[in-house]
Amino acid sequence: MSCEETELRILEHQENQLSPALREKMETHLADCASCRMFARQLQRLDAALSAGIQTPVLSANFDQRLAERIGVGSRILSEAERAERKRALQAEFEAGQARLGRGLFGLDGLMRHLIWPALAVVFGWLAWQLTLDLTTHITAQSLGGLDPRLLPWLTASTVCLAVGLVELYREAAFLRSR
Amino acid sequence: MEDNDILGLLEARQYGEAFTPVVERYKDKVFRLAFSIMHNETQAEDATQDVLVKIWRGLPGFNRGASLSTWIYIITRNTCFTEIKRRDRHRTVSLQEPELEGDFIPELQSSDPEPGSEMDVESMLAKLPEKYRQVVTLFYLEQKKYEETAAMMGIPLGTVKTLLFRARKELLRIHAEMVRPKAGLPRTALNITVL
After folding, report:
1. Interacting residues of B113 by C-beta distance below 8 A, sequence separation 6+
2. Which CB contacts under 8 angstroms, 24+ apart, belong to A9-17?
3. Would you say A130 and A158 are in contact if contact means Cβ atoms under 8 Å apart?
4. Which of these, B120, B123, B143, lies nearest to B133 by C-alpha position?
5. Does B184 score more than 60 pLDDT?
6. How far apart are CA B69 and CA B25, in angstroms?
């Protein structure tokens, strides 16, 4: 075995990873070659120094606590049962809030807040419709050709107001039924 | 708890239950890998915290077919290298800093002091190029396990062995330089003297 090959395989020899045949060749060469023998000895001493000199670092005592605080779940990771319990508590809190909101809806404030606009729209539509009836009477008496063009915007506006009022009323009725 | 058990919990979407054994099983390995990259305990511990927080957030998206350890080590390396880059951007380099690497190349001779008896490992590692320093540190922190070192660094086993061999030779050279810093001369100067 040459010095170059010995150098390449010296670590395998020191870690007992060579085959018996190669091991025998290596030991024969080391017995004859002072340079390789010294290199092997230096590597062994270096290995011992590194093993002793590279100290394993240790995590701080409060490492787990810091981690738990960072991920925001208190002092430890919640189990599945604890997460389910937390979910139930949040659901109950949500439903209680909904109930309070419902009581507010049926109070005077809630009633006014949710009915005032549809009511106003209905009243306005009703008034507009009355105007339309008058217009109808007018049209009947005077024939279509006698319709005053200046009344056409009023006729359109009244129809739109009536439609809006009915739609709003329907929406509020549907909302109150869902409660 | 083994990785397969943890993967079973992830399969059942029990992320809270899976995270606790992940922390217990990997926090020290992540810390040692981070330390081998950053060479500073405080910074390595902060990086370990960051890594575990990323794992906590990433568990629901973890690819069940992948290796848990590989995934964790990739996160660790990326986190550490990102942090090092961030620190490098803010680091001030002194113009008075002496040049450490010269062309002085001492030869090992039989009269050299025996390495091992007075080796200042910390100083020697500080002079070792970074590409060798990490693998040497991690190898000895992992109780000289080649496979574990390769897995944690994300490189082939053969590359680990090659790097370790070159690193040891370099450490011997550094040690020889440290124990007789004035005995040798730069090769150019030596040539002039001979002539």
Report:
1. B179, B180
2. A10/A36, A10/A39, A10/A40, A10/A43, A11/A43, A11/B161, A11/B164, A11/B165, A11/B168, A13/A40, A14/A40, A14/A43, A14/A44, A14/A47
3. no
4. B123
5. no
6. 10
Q: Is the model's pLDDT at A13 over the cut of 80?
A: yes
pLDDT beyond 50 at B106: no
pLDDT of residue A145: 59
Among A38-42, B30-34, B40-44, name the one with the lowest average pLDDT: A38-42
pTM exceeding the 0.90 threshold for the entire prediction: no
Q: Does A42 touch chain B (CB under 8 A)?
A: yes
Please provide the DSSP assignment of A23-66 as one string. HHHHHHHHHH-HHHHHHHHHHHHHHHHHHHHSPPP---TTHHHH
Closest CA to A112 of A160, A177, A172: A172
User: Which residue did the predictor score with more confidence, A18 or B135?
Assistant: B135
Sign of the alpha-carbon torsion through A79, A84, A88, A94: positive
Of A49, A63, A79, nearest to B16 by CB-CB distance is A79
Angle at B140 between CA B124 and CA A13, to 5 degrees: 95
Q: Which residue has the higher pLDDT, A97 or B18?
A: B18
Q: Which parts of B59-181 fold into alpha helices (H)?
A: 68-90, 121-127, 130-141, 146-153, 157-179
Distance in Å, alpha carbon of B60 to nearest chain A alpha carbon? 14
Q: Which two tokens stand for residue A11?
A: 């670590």
Output DSSP code: residue A149: G
State the pLDDT confidence band at B76, using cuts at 50, 70 and 90.
very high
pLDDT at B95: 46
Among A residues 54-73, those touching chain B with beta carbons less than 8 Å apart:
54, 56-57, 59-60, 63-64, 66-67, 70-71, 73
Q: Return the ∠ at Cα B146 (arms to B80 and A28), rounded to 5°.
A: 145
Q: How many residues does chain A have?
A: 179
Q: Please tell me which of the candidates B19, B44, B165 has its beta carbon nearest to residue A57.
A: B44
pLDDT at A141 over 70: no
Calpha distance A141→B144 (Å, rounded): 110
